[in-house]
């Protein structure tokens, strides 16, 4: 159809590459998403404490990782950390080798990048919460911590879920940049396959579809989570 | 649809894809001009087709985009270290072959003990994404290929010991070894194959194909390719000498 030729898909080597690529993409996305959410929660929690130096530190973290390209962060982690001394001696060869693998460098930089964005998302959730709810909680005698865990956090989480969905889908797609530091994910193998077969259009279409399917599953799950967590009288649960 | 030969003549200019980062085939000289063995050949072809070697536009290409450039009509021909392979022959036509180039070899530290391809099994070796031999490296030799987008990153990673060697075109690695920075490195594993190189043309363009082949044969018969080997500091190959002899014999 349309002169597209997918005969290369019959080659077991290419099947293996695509499979490995998808698995590595999923691993990288899952790991960095989980870490980004955790970092975001800790960051937003830190901001509620109103400690001057902690505020400054978190803001610096957000500015640095939100305002620089993830591609650059990965290259920096991959080439610069090892030259700054993050090295170990490989017992089998006796050579001094970089401590962090390409996958670790990609996972760390994506986690920090996603974490910086998630910090802001969670902060917006906390800050946009109606004052009246907090006043009501206070009048009922909730202390600072009880108020955070039992009132603020549950409501803020619901408010920031749409924003978080954006961040996670973005993070998922950004894993494709890890091919630059040789992480063999989907784009890495896609490039190799179309360089071998010259079926550029066909490979691009297939990879596009794989990303659409995978990211759609993620956004569907997030939409379900949003619906599940919705509470009466607020947002869609209205 | 008009053939490429008519287009080229109507335009008065031959548009050729060449390398600009590959000594000795196509590279930038001190003045910033693109020169090299294949650039000289391309200029010779332009002279044969249009009467002057200045009637040429050199378009720098890289391995991963040159065939797209050709099939999309951005260039008329490729003279850019294009190895002749069956896979490529499905998509483009090759001119007559004019060079027999060594395939990939492995650059490694002088202390490295590996000397055969089979000994690289399970080892991490740096490479370049999209090289034609990558599949063979992983499938046949069982190498854990760590492939980068471009060469500088691969050289850096080799120096960082992220891989025990760098598999790349032998000619490029030989040139790299001449740099003082790389004095403590060697070609650890020699090429397993020699591959003919040819120009690339769009499929089924017979008239243009014949004209280009004729120009290449003429250059061979005049001993031009041997002269260019000398000019660009290449070791003289038996292959090119034999082709020159055959071209002269055919002419007489």
From TrEMBL, chain A:
GO terms for molecular function: transmembrane transporter activity. It is found in: Cell inner membrane; Cell membrane. PROSITE patterns: ABC_TM1. GO terms for cellular component: ATP-binding cassette (ABC) transporter complex. It comes from the Bacteria. Residues 22-219 form the ABC transmembrane type-1 domain. The chain crosses the membrane at residues 28-49, 70-88, 100-122, 203-223. Keywords: Cell inner membrane, Cell membrane, Membrane, Transmembrane, Transmembrane helix, Transport. Signal peptide: none annotated. Pfam families: BPD_transp_1. It is a multi-pass membrane protein. One of its GO terms (biological process) is amino acid transport. The keyword Cell membrane applies. The keyword Translocase does not apply. PANTHER family: ARGININE ABC TRANSPORTER PERMEASE PROTEIN ARTM, MEMBRANE COMPONENT OF AMINO ACID ABC TRANSPORTER. NCBIfam families: HEQRo_perm_3TM. Belongs to the binding-protein-dependent transport system permease family. HisMQ subfamily. This is ABC transporter permease subunit. It comes from Bradyrhizobium barranii subsp. barranii.
UniProtKB/TrEMBL annotation, chain B:
It comes from the Bacteria. Gene3D superfamilies: Periplasmic binding protein-like II (3.40.190.10). Pfam families: SBP_bac_3. The keyword Cell wall biogenesis/degradation does not apply. InterPro entries: Bact_solute-bind_prot3, Solute-binding_3/MltF_N. One of its GO terms (cellular component) is outer membrane-bounded periplasmic space. Keywords: Signal, Transport. One of its GO terms (biological process) is amino acid transport. Residues 13-235 form the Solute-binding protein family 3/N-terminal domain. PANTHER family: ABC TRANSPORTER GLUTAMINE-BINDING PROTEIN GLNH, AMINO ACID ABC TRANSPORTER PERMEASE. Belongs to the bacterial solute-binding protein 3 family. This is Transporter substrate-binding domain-containing protein.
């Amino acid at each position: 159809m349309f002169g597209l030729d997918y005969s290369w898909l019959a080659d077991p080597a290419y099947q293996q590459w695509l499979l490995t690529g998808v698995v590595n993409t999923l691993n990288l996305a899952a790991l960095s998403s989980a870490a980004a959410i955790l970092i975001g929660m800790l960051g937003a929690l830190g901001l509620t404490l109103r400690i001057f130096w902690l505020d400054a530190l978190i803001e610096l973290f957000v500015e640095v990782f939100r305002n620089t390209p993830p591609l650059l962060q990965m290259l920096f982690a991959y080439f610069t950390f090892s030259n700054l001394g993050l090295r170990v001696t490989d017992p089998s060869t006796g050579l001094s080798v970089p401590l962090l693998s390409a996958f670790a460098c990609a996972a760390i930089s994506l986690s920090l990048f996603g974490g910086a964005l998630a910090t802001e998302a969670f902060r917006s959730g906390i800050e946009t919460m109606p004052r009246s709810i907090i006043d009501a909680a206070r009048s009922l005698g909730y202390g600072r911590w009880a108020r955070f865990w039992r009132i603020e956090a549950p409501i803020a989480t619901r408010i920031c879920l749409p924003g978080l969905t954006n961040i996670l889908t973005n993070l998922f797609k950004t894993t494709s940049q890890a091919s630059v530091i040789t992480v063999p994910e989907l784009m890495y193998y896609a490039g190799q396959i179309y360089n071998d077969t010259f079926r550029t259009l066909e490979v691009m279409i297939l990879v596009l579809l794989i990303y659409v399917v995978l990211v759609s599953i993620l956004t569907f799950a997030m939409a379900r989570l949003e619906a599940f967590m919705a509470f009466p009288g607020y947002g869609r649960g209205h | 649809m008009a053939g490429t030969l008519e287009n080229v003549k109507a335009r008065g200019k031959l548009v050729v894809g060449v390398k600009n980062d590959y000594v000795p085939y196509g590279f930038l000289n001190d003045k910033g001009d693109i020169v090299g063995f294949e650039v000289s050949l391309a200029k010779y072809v332009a002279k044969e087709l249009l009467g002057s070697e200045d009637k040429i536009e050199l378009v720098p290409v890289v391995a991963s985009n040159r065939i797209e450039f050709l099939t999309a009509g951005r260039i008329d021909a490729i003279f850019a270290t294009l190895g002749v392979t069956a896979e490529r022959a499905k998509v483009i036509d090759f001119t007559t072959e004019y060079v027999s180039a060594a395939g990939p070899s492995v650059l490694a530290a002088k202390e490295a003990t590996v000397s055969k391809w089979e000994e690289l099994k399970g080892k991490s070796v740096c490479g370049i994404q999209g090289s034609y031999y990558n599949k063979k490296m992983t499938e046949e030799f069982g190498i854990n290929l760590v492939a980068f987008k471009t060469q500088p990153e691969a050289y850096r990673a080799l120096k960082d010991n992220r891989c025990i060697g760098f598999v790349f075109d032998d000619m490029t690695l030989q040139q790299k070894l001449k740099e003082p920075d790389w004095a403590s490195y060697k070609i650890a594993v020699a090429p397993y194959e020699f591959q003919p190189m040819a120009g690339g043309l769009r499929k089924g363009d017979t008239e243009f194909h014949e004209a280009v082949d004729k120009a290449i044969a003429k250059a061979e018969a005049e001993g031009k390719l041997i002269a260019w080997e000398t000019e660009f500091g290449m070791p003289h190959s038996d292959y090119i000498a034999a082709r020159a002899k055959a071209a002269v014999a055919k002419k007489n």
